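User: I'm writing a short report section on ligand binding and want a predicted complex to refer to. Could you take this sequence and nicotinamide-adenine-dinucleotide and write out the structure as tokens? A short remark afterwards would be nice.
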Amino acid sequence: MRLLVTGGAGFIGSEFVRATLRGVLPSSSGTHITVLDKLTYSGNELNLAPIADLQNYRFVQGDICDGDLVDDVVAGHDAIVHFAAETHVDRSIEGAASFVCTNALGTQVLLEAASRHRLGRFVHISTDEVYGSISEGAWTEASPVAPNAPYAAAKAAGDLLALAWHRTRKLDVVVTRCTNNYGPYQYPEKLIPLFTTNLLDGQQVPVYGDGHNRRQWLHVSDHCRAIQLVLLGGRPGEVYHIGGGTELTNLELTERILDACGAGWDMVRHVPDRLGHDLRYSLDTTKIHTELGYSPRVAFEDGLAETVEWYRTHRGWWEPLKNPDKAAGSPTDAGR
Ligand code: NAD
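Assistant: Sure. The structure tokens for the complex follow:
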């Protein structure tokens, strides 16, 4: 299969590419992957270094909003797995333009090209955040989207466009919605890598508000295995939830990270809550379990310990991202 992976230099996309090309994911032998990635602040070619020399891999730097480029790159592929997105909620509250461009318009550009070149499958990677917040119970795939943050609203726009392309153009679209991911190579602005790297540097960690917001956490390798199952066996036009991980309040998660890093509560400071901070997300994952036999495999305690160890032993990866001035030695790089 010739796969086009957008956003393949980011956290989850690069795990999917590495796992596919190393044959870790089932039925991945014989796959050729092209990565299309703009290399924004969160995209990093180092994430793909372990497979960069393989013959069945190609990297194209570019923007999914660039129609001519996308049309060229999409030609000759069998399927697209679409990860590319602006992903950080706090950044979307500060300024939403790039979120709307990439997550909504960029998705539409890809859908147009996929239809034009008659691709066999389009897997649109999305998030539980499109549903808003739920105080009890869990959303099913039939629940209406009701996003709150600009990030989630722009992702929901992409989801709805993808499903519209299935209905109107008969494009073979499948949408996945996943809970929070964690694991190696995650940009150190997200909670687990931010807290871990702060503690490794002897710095305090910032907990939003009272810390009672609840999230479900899934190891990135489980997410990618589920995406592969959906790519190969998901039904066209369907949404699949991916989750089944561990649900924790931010305070419970903080305690586990403190323990894993050998730090105490004196390293925690409470900061004003995020605007419109969703209290809880929860996905019902019966459908993917029943239809595709998916269950997560990585126990949270093991995955977190392994993740903390990865950050402990990969300072060379994250230090330049957190301290660009020091790394580049140039004040002009300070905005990155
Ligand atoms: P990330 O921020 O680590 O990576 C995003 C990648 O997209 C980067 O490599 C970036 O360079 C690329 N990109 C951004 N704009 C682009 C553009 N215009 N053209 C081409 N490439 C562009 O994000 P991630 O955490 O790996 O998330 C990947 C996908 O998974 C996203 O669609 C996100 O919404 C979804 N998701 C993430 C999580 C999570 O916990 N991280 C959970 C559920 C769903």
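A remark for your report: The first strand starts at residue 2 and ends at 6. Residues 328-336 have pLDDT under 50 and may be disordered.
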